[in-house]
Amino acid sequence: MVKEAAISIICLKCGHCCIHLDVVIVSPKYIDYDLDFSVNDVIDYLEIKRGGNRCPHLSESNECKIHSKSWYNLTPCYQYTQIPDNTECRRGILELNKLK
Ligand code: SF4
Ligand code: SF4
Description:
3 helices; binds iron/sulfur cluster; alpha+beta; 4 strands; two-stranded antiparallel ribbon
Protein backbone atom coordinates (compact mmCIF):
# COMPACT_ATOMS: atom_id res chain seq x y z
CA MET A 1 0.00 0.00 0.00
CA VAL A 2 1.31 3.43 -0.95
CA LYS A 3 1.44 5.82 2.01
CA GLU A 4 -0.97 8.71 1.94
CA ALA A 5 0.85 11.97 1.26
CA ALA A 6 0.33 15.11 3.29
CA ILE A 7 -1.46 17.79 1.33
CA SER A 8 1.32 19.78 -0.30
CA ILE A 9 -0.54 21.93 -2.80
CA ILE A 10 -3.98 23.44 -2.64
CA CYS A 11 -5.45 22.77 -6.08
CA LEU A 12 -7.79 25.58 -7.12
CA LYS A 13 -9.38 23.31 -9.73
CA CYS A 14 -8.66 25.61 -12.66
CA GLY A 15 -8.38 22.62 -15.00
CA HIS A 16 -5.01 23.62 -16.48
CA CYS A 17 -3.24 20.35 -15.62
CA CYS A 18 -6.27 18.34 -16.67
CA ILE A 19 -6.04 19.70 -20.21
CA HIS A 20 -2.56 21.06 -20.95
CA LEU A 21 -0.09 18.81 -19.09
CA ASP A 22 1.08 15.23 -19.40
CA VAL A 23 -0.54 13.65 -16.34
CA VAL A 24 -0.53 10.12 -14.98
CA ILE A 25 -4.17 9.30 -14.34
CA VAL A 26 -6.19 6.31 -13.23
CA SER A 27 -7.39 4.50 -16.32
CA PRO A 28 -11.13 5.13 -16.82
CA LYS A 29 -11.76 1.38 -16.95
CA TYR A 30 -10.77 1.08 -13.27
CA ILE A 31 -12.68 3.99 -11.72
CA ASP A 32 -15.44 1.76 -10.35
CA TYR A 33 -12.95 -0.62 -8.72
CA ASP A 34 -12.03 -0.49 -5.05
CA LEU A 35 -8.43 0.45 -5.80
CA ASP A 36 -5.81 -0.06 -3.11
CA PHE A 37 -2.74 1.01 -5.10
CA SER A 38 -0.70 -1.92 -3.87
CA VAL A 39 2.77 -1.68 -5.34
CA ASN A 40 2.46 -4.78 -7.52
CA ASP A 41 -0.73 -3.69 -9.19
CA VAL A 42 -0.54 0.07 -9.34
CA ILE A 43 1.02 0.27 -12.80
CA ASP A 44 -2.00 -1.56 -14.20
CA TYR A 45 -4.36 1.11 -12.91
CA LEU A 46 -2.57 4.03 -14.47
CA GLU A 47 -2.12 5.56 -17.90
CA ILE A 48 -0.63 8.76 -19.29
CA LYS A 49 -2.94 11.52 -20.44
CA ARG A 50 -0.95 13.61 -22.89
CA GLY A 51 -0.77 17.39 -22.76
CA GLY A 52 -3.34 19.04 -25.02
CA ASN A 53 -5.82 16.21 -24.48
CA ARG A 54 -8.68 16.71 -22.07
CA CYS A 55 -8.58 14.24 -19.17
CA PRO A 56 -11.46 11.77 -19.47
CA HIS A 57 -12.23 12.43 -15.77
CA LEU A 58 -12.82 16.15 -16.32
CA SER A 59 -16.51 17.00 -16.51
CA GLU A 60 -18.05 19.53 -18.87
CA SER A 61 -18.12 21.99 -15.96
CA ASN A 62 -14.38 21.41 -15.35
CA GLU A 63 -14.82 19.39 -12.14
CA CYS A 64 -12.77 16.24 -11.60
CA LYS A 65 -15.24 13.36 -11.56
CA ILE A 66 -12.99 11.14 -9.41
CA HIS A 67 -12.20 13.57 -6.58
CA SER A 68 -14.88 11.91 -4.47
CA LYS A 69 -13.41 8.41 -4.78
CA SER A 70 -12.10 6.96 -1.52
CA TRP A 71 -8.72 6.28 -3.17
CA TYR A 72 -8.34 9.70 -4.82
CA ASN A 73 -5.79 10.83 -2.23
CA LEU A 74 -3.45 8.07 -3.47
CA THR A 75 -3.45 9.26 -7.08
CA PRO A 76 -0.62 11.21 -8.74
CA CYS A 77 -3.02 14.16 -9.19
CA TYR A 78 -3.62 14.43 -5.45
CA GLN A 79 0.07 14.03 -4.70
CA TYR A 80 1.11 16.83 -7.06
CA THR A 81 3.32 19.29 -5.13
CA GLN A 82 4.85 22.72 -5.09
CA ILE A 83 7.29 24.56 -2.83
CA PRO A 84 6.46 25.93 -0.33
CA ASP A 85 4.02 23.20 0.57
CA ASN A 86 0.42 23.60 1.69
CA THR A 87 -0.09 26.74 -0.38
CA GLU A 88 -2.52 27.66 -3.14
CA CYS A 89 -1.31 26.58 -6.58
CA ARG A 90 0.48 29.52 -8.20
CA ARG A 91 -0.42 28.34 -11.72
CA GLY A 92 -4.04 28.04 -10.66
CA ILE A 93 -4.05 31.61 -9.36
CA LEU A 94 -2.65 32.77 -12.72
CA GLU A 95 -5.20 30.81 -14.72
CA LEU A 96 -8.16 31.95 -12.63
CA ASN A 97 -7.01 35.58 -12.82
CA LYS A 98 -7.11 35.32 -16.62
CA LEU A 99 -10.85 34.63 -16.36
CA LYS A 100 -11.59 37.80 -14.38
S1 SF4 B 1 -7.87 12.85 -12.74
FE1 SF4 B 1 -8.98 14.69 -12.17
S2 SF4 B 1 -7.45 16.10 -11.34
FE2 SF4 B 1 -6.36 14.47 -12.47
S3 SF4 B 1 -6.05 15.30 -14.54
FE3 SF4 B 1 -7.96 14.13 -14.55
S4 SF4 B 1 -9.60 15.60 -14.13
FE4 SF4 B 1 -7.65 16.53 -13.54
S1 SF4 C 1 -2.79 24.29 -12.35
FE1 SF4 C 1 -2.94 24.12 -10.11
S2 SF4 C 1 -5.01 24.77 -9.62
FE2 SF4 C 1 -4.97 24.27 -11.79
S3 SF4 C 1 -5.61 22.12 -11.93
FE3 SF4 C 1 -3.36 22.18 -11.85
S4 SF4 C 1 -2.86 21.95 -9.67
FE4 SF4 C 1 -5.01 22.54 -9.78
